[in-house]
């Protein structure tokens, strides 16, 4: 181990009281207390410009970090837009903002520029917040902090209970947040989600500092805050559930046509694509290649509730795929932009397969010593790329440069470089 590894591993064990990461940061021994009501009650929902202006002024005048959360309507509506934004800051209290009534929150985002935002699982909420003009310049992710600190369960409810000793009511996490008006129990749940977020942040900061991991966490938070918007996924139809059953190119074309038709309909209706046509029905039609509406209607996914007009539009999609020339049929498998799937390495390059096996084992061991998930220690994709095409000279300098080039943060480069150099050298990179 490097000095940094020794310090982190030792401090982790000391803070836990033993060598097990399962108790990381857990200082609550009494029975947890149910958190039933926000301390100032449920605030009114902000749904017009006048009320929003008051919130902007209040939060700009507040102090300390700001807790931020967002609720979406996944499974009900098309896309991942926010249908409620919850915020809390010292001196400003809690605000519940309706992005339907107030679709532009850029003034609020600007008022909080330079302020640290506290989110739980930030990468889930940042895309929908960006859409309405809110993007932090600094953040603290309590879920990621929990991972780095070695907590075995990092959901918000588990973290609040284990660290702060309170039980959050989580019964409304999967409801349709596009519902208007929002029921009072849902609003209570939403307000409570940010009630203790800053308290959790403060406790986790102390825990990370005690374990010698605070600087690592800060580098991770900076990387999230500065990351550009994600590129749209290429060929998203390939992520249809059950695609592994579809092998022939003509069948793949049917999946593509049905998926794209469904997506257009879902977007127009503003409903979840799964409510228009289930993935299972798309795959079933692709495997059966029905010749007409009657054959399509006989398939399980297209039951008796499917109207004639709907059947005709799905059959038209199937017919378009069946009429495509061979040159326009999709190829099996997604386009490969990096190394091939690891399962193919033994045949394509046995030496690379040996390097990957050794590197994975080394990273796993180090992650266990540091009491954190190995994917947070270093991206598995980065390890694969390094092992598939290692630098000409396997030494600390070249490996460090390669890791940084793949996006590894400085703390990751420092910790992982020595074990990867050893693993690659032993397997003759």
UniProtKB/TrEMBL annotation:
InterPro entries from the UniProt entry: 3'-5'_exonuclease_dom, Exo_C, HRDC-like_sf, HRDC_dom, HRDC_dom_sf, RNase_D-like, RNaseH-like_sf, RNaseH_sf
Residue ranges annotated for the HRDC domain, each copy included: 248-328
PROSITE patterns: HRDC
SMART domains: 35EXOc (SM00474), HRDC (SM00341)
Single annotated GO MF: nucleic acid binding
Gene Ontology biological-process entries: nucleobase-containing compound metabolic process
Record carries keyword Hydrolase: yes
Enzyme Commission number, as recorded: 3.1.13.5
Region (Disordered), start-end ranges: 1-41, 325-348
Keywords on record: Hydrolase
Biased composition (Polar residues): 1-10
One of the Pfam families matching this protein, by short name: HRDC
Superkingdom of source: Bacteria
Full protein name: Ribonuclease D
Organism field: Streptomyces murinus
